Amino acid sequence: MRLRPCYVLTLWLSCALAASIAQAPLPQSPRIDKIDPPGWWAGLPDPMLLVQGEGLNHARFTVDGADVALDHTQISNNGHWAFLWLKTANAAPQILWVTASNDQGQARRSFTLAERSRDPKAHGGFSSADVMYLIMPDRFADGNAANNLPGDDRKALKGWHGGDITGIEQHLDYLHELGITALWTTPVTSNSAMLESYHGYSATDLYAVDPHFGTLDDYRHLSDALHAKGMKLVIDLVPNHIGVQHPWMLDPPAPEWFHGTLANHRLTDHNFYALMDPHAPRQAWSATTEGWFTDQMPDLNQENPLVSRYLIQNALWWVETANLDGIRLDTLPYVGRAFWRDFHATLHSVYPRMTTVGEVFNGDPEVTSFFAGGVAHRGIDTGLDTPFDFPVYFVLRDVLTHGKPMTDLSRVLRQDALYPHPEQLVTFIGNHDTSRFFTEAAGSVPKTKLAMGMLVTLRGLPQIYSGDEIGISGGGDPDNRHDFPGGFPGDARSAFTKAGRTAAEENIFAWTSGMLALRSAHPALQTGIEQNLFADDDLFAFVRSPGEAGCALDHSSERMLIVVNKAEHSRVVELPMAETALTGCEAFEAEAPAYGAAPGVNGGKLRIEEPAQSMTVFAVR
Predict the structure, then answer these.
(1) Which residues pair with 83 in a beta bridge?
(2) CA 145 to chain centre
(3) Residue 366 near residue 415 (C-beta atoms within 8 A)
(4) In this structure, what DSSP letter does residue 131 have?
(5) CB atoms < 10 A from the CB of 236, how many?
(6) Mean pLDDT for each 10-residue chunk of the chain (621 residues)?
């Protein structure tokens, strides 16, 4: 019998389709490799879990636990990622079970819903009463040789050197002796796949401590050890970007996870003024918030609600896990203001006393104040507790090392009116991104001591970069990141001890620790207002006081008068006392270590002779 052509074709197509269906691979059994966050706490906002694995796109998810519900899910097309939104508001601490199943099998993973800390002192925040110390863990001290990994090389300026969390903990007595009350370390999150990311700013896992630094237990132990000494721990978080070796780079959990792609992205242009300008078109500022910081640092898309929630949860997880007191926020202007509003709203609702400080690397107070919380700009309040005081950083260097007049400092301080809370600003004379002050001052011990003295007595919270208290030298990155002397096996000497410090190092250390002790002993230097009395080319005089009233109206409170002379010769200055915080004051006693000659009072003026390149701090009553 002869078959018609159309019947033959139809029969062939049917057979081919049947064969292809028979040969198509069945959905694979699901696999769960990782869950972010690794755990959560009863009483915290409902968590969104990010599950990583295989075959998740054909799986049904369940979460088993008392008073816990799986609200909804979102699964990537390739089956590698699943977002799970849980309802835990009424749940008690318990072990939950997350299950992904299909006809081929199932995968289960436990998930702990823990009890929150009941310590009433937990998450207390930092304030102007504190003194913050910055450490790069890789360059401070090697306390555990077991986590020194292949490739560590102290001769490599941009390589891993072997410093770790244990090394920091082993030298807390040194920090206590110096007068430190809060410790900020550069990020401890894992950067291990990035060969030159010893600095910690190119994360490859936002929920893990880098193995070069130790373990999560080591970090928790450091937190406990600090608190036992009455000190605080400040974490460094980087919501702006990650490292290019992060698994997300080639396999993002959701569309639009990044701004751009590895092959097609733009670099940031650092145009903060365009961000501030209400008349600027989007084209003028979009590269600032959407460009990559470097080609090695992919820019996260915080406008994506999934990314935003992931990052906010990550902050809460670290705070609760390590019993943290504060957060330093990297590259703050490069992230949109709406994200910072949501970030701080959540953070402060869960931890009302928690404080944050943000990096706004710019010397213009108009710029730095734009990002401070407490006031809305462009319709949005960032909620940031305080930015770093980069304007005072720049001007202190200018007046003390580059011959600029002290009136420049007075001019910058006048612009404190731009900030909702200038008394909370975090002041500094150097950090891990700047040349060392000692090098900027051409190795001058007197200038370095003046810088430290002014840092300690000006309004705000002083931050000291590890090594500046002994005058470590260094130019720009990476020359400003040398190992701390004595922190590593085989070092010829230890600057952690008086015997191991050079004469110049001991001179600066003794002065700095003495000035910090003076600050600790006098509340006016910690929380008092600042009243600037006099400034010219070389001399600056100011008062720290509980209020603007003088001694005539307030006999009980102590004021502190600070006189700074940067000239290479002595100076005589007469300060008017009427209608100042010195009105009616009669006793002026110089305080160690900032000794000076007793002033004279005549005709309503205070006459002071200040020696060359020196400063004197007077307790005033």
Answers:
(1) 50, 74
(2) 27
(3) yes
(4) -
(5) 20
(6) 37 41 68 98 98 97 98 98 98 98 97 94 96 98 96 95 98 98 98 91 98 98 98 98 97 98 96 96 96 97 98 98 98 98 98 98 98 97 98 98 98 98 98 98 98 98 98 97 98 98 98 98 97 98 95 86 98 95 94 90 93 97 92
